[in-house]
Amino acid sequence: MDNYFLVCGLGSLGQNCVVALKKFNVPVIAIEQEKTSQPWEIPQLLLLLDDIILGDCRQTEVLQKAKIAKCRAALIVTSNEKVNAETAIAIRQLNPNTRLVVRSSKENLNILLGEQLGNFIAYEPIQLPASAFALAALGTEILGLFSLDKRRIRITRRQINSKDPWSNNKYIYEINNKTRRLLTHTPDHYAQIETNFHQWDGELKIQNGDILIYAEVVDDFKEESVQISPTRQNWRQKLVNLRKSWKPFVRNFGKLSLSQQIRGVAVISGFVVMILLMIGTILFERFYEETNLVSAFYATATLLLGGYADLLGDFEPNESIPWWLQLFAFILNLMGTAFVGILYALLTEALLSSKFEFTKSRPPIPQANHIVIVGLGRVGCQVASLLQELGQDILGISFNQDFDRSILPKMPLIVGNLNEALAKANLKKASSVVVVTDDEMLNLEIALMAKTANPRNNLVIRTDGQDLSNNLSKLLPEAKILEAYQLASEAFAGAAFGENIIAVCPIENQNILVTEYQIEVDDTLKGLLISEVAYGYGVEVIAHAKPSQNLTLMPSDDLQLVEGDRLVVLATVEGLQRIEEGQLNLDAKQYFIRVEKALNSEAAFSGANLIVLISGCSVPQARELFQHLPATLDVPLYKQQANRLVRGLNKRQVKAIVLENRE
User: Fold this and answer.
1) pTM across the whole model
2) CATH 1.10.3470 corresponds to the domain 258-353
3) Which of the two residues, 282 and 566, has the higher pLDDT score?
């Protein structure tokens, strides 16, 4: 039976993948290039492995020693993407059914390999947790943020206070609606935060001090203010607008940044040159009889460019041109030389500063309440983009002079050596510092420098190894230490079982995986109600779709899953394990509904339909129940399921109660 799981490469990511796989209680075999003299990052690693093979994972004999013919999945996670691609091809030739989970950042290659090899998925482990770094930088109640079918889902932690509109005014069950699902509820008197889903009593009222964690659909679209098209404004309106904008600009000129001042000087110089060109053209055309309008225009342009000597440089007096017009021409030459010279200088400065590259202009460096992102690799760029989407003031720092700046969003940027860059970043007034370079030791150095500059900074630090993460947590207890490979490893492990891991959200010291399922013939989810999936497996269903349809977010609990359906859930690794093994929590399914009476036949008919919908029982069984009232429905339910059914029956004028264990 194909039950083995193969891990190729035992670097930081590979070791964490072994730990994540063992949470599913599956046999794991590893292939490592050569025996290392250094201790493993995870001390008990060898005890977790069923076997370890030394050799090149691309070679057929090595793969055969690793029982590739009996492997359900192979996690190919070496640090060399070329080796990973070659290994995936070699494995597919030996076993056409093995699930391939590959470490790779080559998006186009990943698509092509997926089409050719089948049962293939690839992830870039450093990019998976990028949203976790961004949200940690906010230091707010947002714990997770991800997109499904171009709509955004947010996971929020909300602590109730006396001014909260939910305080003493809403029942727990009322939090759930068409756009929101409650994950956990921690009453004020609890010593620890509740981390298991659905361990809440919907009939309680929300109190001060309670902590709620919930997922909700958020609308990304922002209304843009309607502006009048310039082509529809008359000239009077244009003058009014110009006068309104000109005065504040002159008054606040000294407060502008250097780049804004330079741009202002350029605009003024260009405007003055155009006015002089118009005045000179008119005067020469009217008061110099030997010229026409075109010649007057060219003569004025020549004077503005410093050509006085070419036109009026003779020693002999020119009686055909009035003396005052000659004086005006001389003044025009002087003013043109000055203002055109300014335009030349600004153009030259711009070309030299950009190294003759047409790059995007960067906003000025923020002075306070900004988020500093140190390290602008793949992770840093993603963090910057997400924080900008969330409306945050950000500042990027890179120590690489030659990196590709075109991949960055339009953001303030400092490029230079460590000390100079941090000195310019206004760390003392920054709200957060996110350190995500590829060098762990450099991250440590930057974190300590940032902490020294501002002890109140919200520090977010990227690490790649467990040992450094543990030590940093002790050294900087207030900082948020995110181990990139540990976050990514659970996504790789979940994907090994054939599911699509969409995102990873670290919530209250555990990782929540946003996981997409495709219901298959022998699936452990097939035939269940969504409520049974949620309460039985301890996960939260946030999206559902029938075959060839778009996802419905926050679907009804009463839908029954059939083959071909798509399902997106929030789950821990333990939740995914329960689904994989079909371990429904039947012990919690111990609540029954006792129906006392129905007000009339219409209430009985409506109540029976509701019982069929929520409990999943047959229509004849529900109709029979109402023929012998009072009676107890012989279908065990989960607590939240039973309470929701009773509330629905009472609204339909059917009196019913919840019984814990059947009488």
Assistant:
1) 0.72
2) no
3) 566
